[in-house]
């Protein structure tokens, strides 16, 4: 296996944002980074666009300007954006029952679930009880049929619980029924294509040679606390947590690196892009890029906190969500680290498992992206991603995150 002695950083970084580059280099030298990219756009200009490290340690293949990787739940931000575009056009009603668009969904106590509940994680269809066959998450029709037959895990609308995988098919099937296009095709035609960003949900075969395979962290050592979510998952396979971690047809593991997984539309976790693609997608939402994907009303609707709890029904930790996006979450006083997302109260976006993130900050006209192949631990950001965000906020004049978000 090739070893990275020093980070050979490529790309650009304006002098005022040198702190971001410094933290990026420290990620490789001190924090176990393997291959990664970071991008920051402010006031319509790209001020940071950096990449470094190894895309594939086994072969020594370097991470280059066009390397992409699976960005996990950062994909939820793209999927949510597709729904918001349809809402803005008057084609999708957030408060309509899902059955209006997807009649088969109204089975087994789900007839009153609204589109809004799908987006803010209150739908209570957070996992699939039916055993998922190997590679089953790559089969859209199989998964959506299973979800239509599911029974809610709690009374829909009464609390939020993170829909780690199912969010994508639930929202994506509504987008498909309304628009007549698959989620991946809608995103390509309405977002990625017009913005000129390298971001695919359902990748073309030509993309495969540019993909950095995901590297999973070592399992917890004996006696090490993996946190409430993973403890529940591993001790009770029938729990919603256990079903998410263990009943995914191998996708949450080596299966995510298979070419067929990259080609499939897995719209809560399977997007392929890099930091430039993430920052580019959020740039119009921050007023920091070309195009205008949402109206002012639509932007306000996407950013406003819609659900929050001290104990998420799935993650078993405090969470805050707008309609399809995560907002700033300060869990630093909890016993386990890496459960926080420290951005400003005006910002919204989505992290991915292991620490990737993309977000928009409309007040500062700033958009940010970070993507990497070496996953970290925790439910939120680890020090690699958070240090880059902290440096970005300091560079644009923010003063402190002591209160739980950058101000």
Task: Explain how this protein is built.
The protein is an alpha+beta fold and 407 residues long. It has a single domain, classed as DD-peptidase/beta-lactamase superfamily (Beta-lactamase, 3-Layer(aba) Sandwich), CATH 3.40.710.10. Helix content is 29%, strand content 13%. It contains twelve helices and eleven strands. The strands form three sheets. Strands 1, 2, 3, 4, 9, 10 and 11 form a seven-stranded antiparallel β-sheet that branches. Strands 5-6 form a two-stranded antiparallel ribbon. A hairpin with a 4-residue loop joins strand 10 (357-361) and strand 11 (366-372).
The major beta sheet can be summarized as: 7 strands, antiparallel
Radius of gyration: 20 Å
State the low-pLDDT regions, or none: 1-5
Number of helices: 12
**Total beta strands:** 11
The figure for the number of domains is 1
Secondary-structure-derived class? alpha+beta
CATH fold-level assignment: Beta-lactamase
Helicity level, as a percent range? 25-40%
- Order of helix and strand elements from N to C terminus: EHEEEEHHHHHHHHEHHEEEEEH
CATH class category: Alpha Beta
3D shape: globular
Instruction: Kindly report the name of the CATH homologous superfamily.
Output: DD-peptidase/beta-lactamase superfamily
Strand proportion: 5-15%
List the topology elements.
Layout: E1 10-13, H1 18-30, E2 35-42, E3 45-56, E4 61-62, E5 69-70, H2 74-88, H3 115-119, H4 140-149, H5 166-179, H6 183-195, H7 228-235, H8 240-246, H9 259-263, E6 272-273, H10 275-282, H11 296-303, E7 307-309, E8 319-321, E9 348-351, E10 357-361, E11 366-372, H12 383-395
Antiparallel strand pairs: 1-3, 2-3, 2-11, 3-4, 5-6, 7-8, 9-10, 10-11
Helix pairs in contact: 1-12, 2-5, 2-6, 4-5, 7-8
